[in-house]
Amino acid sequence: MSLSYTNRTLVRMGSRVANREIGVAIEQIVAGFAALQSAGIEPANARDSITLIQEVEQVRRLADHAAVEVMSAIEECRFHLGDGHSTAIVRHHAKLSNGEAAAPDRVARLTDTCPDIGMAYRSGALGTDQIRSLSLVHANPRRQTSGHTKTATSA
Questions:
Q1: CA atoms 120, 122, 128, 131: torsion sign
Q2: How far apart are CA 74 and CA 33, in angstroms?
Q3: Alpha-carbon distance 149 to 155, whole Å?
Q4: Backbone angles phi and psi of 106, in degrees to 5
Q5: What pLDDT, in 10s, does the model give residues 62-100?
Q6: 50-81 as b/e, with b when 16 or more CB fall inside 10 Å?
Q7: CA spacing 20 to 30 A to 2: which of 15, 16, 63, 132?
């Protein structure tokens, strides 16, 4: 699916994902964002501003989690092996910076190693910044060689 912005409005062209069920879901999400933009993202009052930011934040967390799930699936299926490391493939094709491409990979490795943390992330109990911070600690080679291998859930 390709996206473009015309006069601050999202335009969608249809998903090209092979799995049609996933493609339809992506198209529905993009249509939802387009409807949100068309409606205008303006809260009605102070209370509504709080509700709006909470709900938009939840959507962002769901999107971030979906990126982690895609990275985990790429690693598990090993589709990237002919072309190099999965983060390099993701960085190139999704047009991401090194940090943007590496973050979902680190989070995927953390949630694969520590399922309780993964469940907390999926449920929304941990935000994107928190899970990324934990994933940096988890990926740190000094932590891995120091003999302190307890996870946050087993402490």
A1: positive
A2: 26
A3: 10
A4: -65, -40
A5: 888 888 888 888 777 766 555 555 666 666 677 778 878
A6: eeeeeeeeeeebeebbebbebbbebbeeeeee
A7: 132
